Amino acid sequence: MNEWKIIVQIGLYATVSFGREPFKPRDGSVPFLVYFPSRYRGLCVGTLLSRTVVITACVCIADPSVHEHDTRPINVVTGATYRHPRRGIRVQVTKIIIPKLSNSTGERAYTIQKSPAILILAKRVPDVLAEIPLRPIDIDYKGDEVLALHEECLMPGWHFFYKGDKIYPVHKFLLQRNIRVQYLIIVKKSLWCNTITMKFQKAMTNLGFVGYFDKASSICVKDPDREAQPCHGMYGAPLICRGKAVAMLLAPDAQWSNCTGGTNLVQLFSSSHIRNFMACVSGLFEPEFKLSWEIFKKSIENDLSGNGHFDYLPDVYDRMLDVMSSSEEV
């Protein structure tokens, strides 16, 4: 994890951070995460709030620019953190609940891009069928957790833009097969997320929104090393702080063009504009355990000196390279 220390050298104080690239979490350590193909955003992430309730981004099931939403069947992939057509259990969504939308195109677009959506699953998946038994996580929709500047949180998902990565022509990008987790810290929005904020406001203005931009509804997070960033295919990914889901990656019209910026805007579940909506649907939330933040951070990590970073088996890979070449030549 990222460690923050104060050191003294020649009478000067300095803050030093030790970051790292997104890593593969230990199998079974994120049983609350699901994913599904979206008509509007490609791949979207969801978070289990009960065995049959998923929270995701509203942009994944509704188009901000037109008065419609996706009426095609949605199947959520559960029980696996490795994305593959033959992995996981697909469960049909039978009902979608979103905040009330205005008839005004601008107001509608703003609400969709700043709000979550609730997916009701057709059935509860038995543990015996799941590769990774499903377990919902607690959500802070009341704002009980007062988050501090430089507080360490984490975000799981299937794509992080890391140093050296490339965005291919026509907005093509590569998604990871294995889930990744990245530690992020909360930083000053005015300093680190000003560009994203301005791009989001411009996008909303182009869609006809002329209302008040609620600046308190979002927070800014970044990798302290400025090397990794949650990116495409991560809409709906939760920000987990102190063992609770506190926010979600939304605002795609801003995040997309700022993918290499190293920072993200995430929307708080306790935002005032969705407070009534979250209170209304809160009866559907059924967390099964109180997640200890410190224990969770320890349990999520693989042995970083072993195969925690890799999708292949290092011992097999090493044998393949034993005679032909050295690792330095690869």
UniProtKB/TrEMBL annotation:
Domain Peptidase S1 span(s) in chain numbering: 16-259
Cross-referenced Pfam families: Trypsin
SUPFAM superfamilies attached to this UniProt entry: Trypsin-like serine proteases
Native source species: Vanessa tameamea (Kamehameha butterfly)
Organism lineage: Eukaryota, Metazoa, Ecdysozoa, Arthropoda, Hexapoda
Protein name: Uncharacterized protein LOC113403087
GO BP terms, alphabetized: proteolysis
Molecular function terms, GO-annotated: serine-type endopeptidase activity
Gene3D superfamilies named in the record: Trypsin-like serine proteases (2.40.10.10)
